[in-house]
Structures are given as structure tokens and as C-alpha cells.
Amino acid sequence: MAFEKTIPLNEFITLQRGFDLPQDKRVMGDIPVVASTGVVGYHNEEKVLAPGVVIGRSGSIGGGQYITTNFWPLNTTLWVKDFKGHHPRFVYYLLRSIDFSQFNVGSGVPTLNRNHLSGILVADTSYSYEKEASDIIGILDDKIKLNKELNHTLEQISQTLFKSWFVDFDPVIDNALDAGNPIPEALQSRAELRQKIRNSADFKPLPADIRALFPAEFEETELGWMPKGWITTSFNDLIELIGGGTPKTSVEEFWNGDIPWFSVVDAPSESDVYVLTTEKKITIEGLNNSSAKLLRKGTTIISARGTVGKCAMVAVPMAMNQSCYGVIGKNNISDEYIYFQLKNAVQTLQQMGHGSVFNTITRDTFKN
Prior knowledge:
Layout: E1 6-8, H1 9-12, E2 14-17, E3 31-35, E4 38-43, E5 52-56, E6 62-67, E7 72-73, E8 77-82, H2 88-96, E9 121-123, H3 127-166, H4 170-179, H5 188-199, H6 208-211, E10 218-221, E11 224-227, E12 239-243, E13 255-262, E14 274-275, E15 280-282, H7 284-288, E16 300-303, E17 311-314, E18 319-320, E19 324-329, H8 335-352, H9 363-367
Helix pairs in contact: 2-3, 3-8
Domain Type I restriction modification DNA specificity: 227-368
GO molecular function: DNA binding; endonuclease activity
Organism: Salmonella enterica
């Protein structure tokens, strides 16, 4: 749809800098305190009435937050003081669509000066159009939010099942109890807890065909008591590690291509499994002229330096930087098993990490 008239952003809406509110001045309440990155606390007094729209001014610039309750915007934000007759949620979507990084005036900390935004031209749309557009986008937004919540629930269920089957050995304990086989003393407390769960009114046993995949006895190994017949080995023996790399940033031909290039900033939230897009992309020339490698779909990426232990499963072929490892299974071990095994081991890996400034994960970490 073409619009006949465009006007500067500062004529479309009025943005104002947020307000100081040091931690020691906050009083317990239910009013959200909003920073450039989101809600960072609560206070007993509001500065702005809902609905409100906020963008990052310092630290993290741009973005956009739609606030549905009265709130206190901090001085690291710009908030919409006057919508000038425009639909608030449409303004939110509009601001989210603008790349404010081009207006960064900070030499160290990213900073946005609202006086520099007059050069942004936006369509002078009608309220009726804005309401219709934001209602449609809002339906999609709500669906995305619902899907993320569902994904989070499924992720929790998957991790719970993985721990139950391969860490706590619940199916083996169930089989042993039903067969009358002895439970090793080291596992007695776990077996007693499991028996209480089995005796509860809402207990649902695993299907017989799944339980049949697990043994009904334990045997002692170097690693302690394990399900009988299971092979114990180093995790390193089950996986192939793939290193990453960074094309030369001074060569323009290596960047802004079609190949997603993963760094830790692209790690999905804890409620998500897959990484679909990345902040930066490289070209095939950049891939071929660096140590970066193209990871196949299903590879698990784990961050090894800086922010250690962030995991993501690759949803589309992509490369990554040298601060990460790509992990795939050997001998047809499933991608999903590798992902959840890594997620379960992250805390241990972090404790084992080596590094004088930051904890790191090295190839030797996986061997241990």
C-alpha cells in the first residue's frame, strides 16, 4: 500500500527521555520499572499511564516495548509522551521496524539522541488504518507468544523425561521393582522415592513397549551403578566437535551474504531450542577464506567462551564464530540425544571450564 504523505518521526509522535530512579530510592510496589532491555524491577509510583511505548536510549538502543500497565520508564529509555492521535500499538510496531543503530552517537556505550531522529520519515497514516493493521499484527504476535509458551512447556517435558530415563534411571528402577530384583544400596533412596511416586493416585506408568527397552537390573561400573548391559564411555567418544571461525571483517566481500553466522548474542532464550536467524551473515567467500565451517541442520552449538554453556540446535545450515563448538553424534546417535545430553551437562561443564578471566570450555573439557 502506498502512502501519499510522509512526515518526520518527531512530528508523528513525541519522544521523551525517561526518569532517574536509583535502586535505593525504589519502594516495593507493583509498578514496573522499565529499562532499555525490559522490566528491571518494581516501584510504588508510576510516571506514565498505560498504554505506553518505550525504546532503548542507552546501553541497548531501539527495539521497542509495549507496556499495558502504568509504569516508570528509566533514563536509559525514550518513551512516547504524545501519540498525537495515532494508535499506540501501531506506534509500537512502527518503532520496532526502525533500525536505530544508524543514529548511535555513543563512542563506547550505544546511545540514542532523540534530537537526531527528525531525519526518519514515516507514513502519515490514519487512526482507522493503524488500528486495523495493529489488530492483524497483534493476532500474529499473540499466536507467536502462545507458540513460545507451548515450546517452553514441551522443552521442560523433554528435559524432565531425559533426566528421568538417562540420569535417574526411573524405567530401570520400575522394571527392577516389578521383577523383584534387588536395588543397590547406593540407589535405595532413589528407589524409595520412586515407589512413593508409583503409589500415588495420579501415577501413569510408561507404555510396556517403552519399558521393554530398559533392563531390570543394575551392575557396578567404574562410574558407579549403571543399568545392566549399558556401555559406559566418555561423552567425547560419542561426539564430533566442530570449531568455528570469523572471516576478516576488513574484507567487505566476506560479509552480508546469505549464510547465517552464529555468535553467543544469537543464542535463543531458555524456552527455545532452535536458532533460525543470526544478527550477522557471511558470504560463501567468507566461509571459504576462514576457519568457519558450515554446520548441518540438527547440529548443537554450545558457547565455549564468554557466556559459557548456551546451547542451540541449528534449524538451518549456518556457520559460527570461534567462541563456540558445533557438536554432532557419531554412529548415528540422534541429534536430540546430543542436545539434551549437553543441556544436562552444562552445569558440570561450566564448573570444569578453564580460563583466568572467563570460564571456558575446551576440547579437553569434553574428554573429562
